[in-house]
Amino acid sequence: MKEHGSFEVIGETLDDAAGEAYDKVARTMGLPYPGGPHIDRLAHEGEPTIKLPRAWLEEGSYHFSFSGLKSAVINTLHNASQKGETIAPENLAASFSSKRH
Prior knowledge:
The protein is an all-alpha fold. The chain has a single domain, classed as ATPase, nucleotide binding domain (Nucleotidyltransferase, domain 5), CATH 3.30.420. Helices cover 46% and strands 0% of the residues. It has four helices and no strands. Helix 1 packs parallel to helix 3 and helix 2 packs across helix 4. It starts with 17 loop residues before the first helix and ends with a helix. The model has no long low-confidence stretch (mean pLDDT 91).
């Protein structure tokens, strides 16, 4: 905030909104709407064991991209399903929510 009533945008999402990504991932995981609280609850029970791209783009930037992260989670779920494998939902939620990608 520069002064009262005057703001400067220092970063933004370049594609999907964060909430949209959470809701679509939650829907794919079979979680209710809105997805954010359900993913966060599960994430506290799991470990970030699944390698996913990160939403934060680069050091020194405040821009984010949630589309690639969202797509990676959805593809991970679909690929596991096609192979007859299951992914622990708490680990997927923790991996999706993790800052350490």
